[in-house]
């Protein structure tokens, strides 16, 4: 057992009838890390998060959570909290009553359980006495997060926590998760939003049809990735295009839909792109903007999952 790992999974397989939801999955998540699960619909993300929360047991493989092996009992391991498929709430109770009821279920006194503190953390103080029935999706997500925080988890497991959050709500929730991670809590979350994952996670695991196609630091994903498309804005578009065409390893992308005459789109590995930039500057052409057309995570996600779909 590795004390630094909040999650250690080896050879996890989970089937629902003929459907193989998870197929020989290995996963290491270090304590204090925010780890993202990403994958197309039906890739197995929720199934995996459900195993971490003790909502289901694997058919085979070994799972250790916070250093302890997980048995075949349906129960959340000590120190684990979170939700999949949206938080479970009592619609007729207020936000505060929901949290007090959860605290009472765990045998804690609602007055000292920290209800007001977690409501404040997720930004729901103003609506603490409103019934959950009237809450928007984003507010329900925040209340679910508050419920999880009430247990002071060491592993927080969240399925699509940004669903329904407006930009301010998202920023608020990101702040909460970052603070938790800084204090040593491990967060494992799924998302279809690459910008969320890039903003929050140090590491990601990409699942496709139940199999892990990548797991590791985001930076490694970018570095390992094939050629990416970049958009360049220069002081001399025509001359820049000619120079790019002559540079080894640079492929012009002539996409009519994206071409606006001013901007140049090229496909390249980073060393070839570096060479192009040096050559532009040497030729007296100013580079005003240089950005990937899609983020490295998005590009790698598409490439890796398309590859996997091809294998099926
Ligand atoms: N309780 C269940 N009974 C039958 N099949 C299930 C069950 N739960 C999941 N599956 C199947 O297992 C596979 C993985 O589903 P899962 O919900 O884990 O994927 P996901 O990556 O979370 O997808 P999404 O992004 O759409 O939420 C899918 O084919 C799904 O239909």
Automatic annotation (TrEMBL):
Keyword Electron transport: no
Domain ABC transporter: 7-234
Superkingdom, natural source: Bacteria
Alphabetical UniProt keywords: ATP-binding, Nucleotide-binding, Transport
Pfam families registered for this protein in UniProt: ABC_tran
SUPFAM superfamilies associated with the record: P-loop containing nucleoside triphosphate hydrolases
UniProt GO MF annotations: ATP binding
Stated family: Belongs to the ABC transporter superfamily.
Name listed for the protein in its UniProt record: ABC transporter ATP-binding protein
Species per Swiss-Prot/TrEMBL record: Streptomyces siamensis
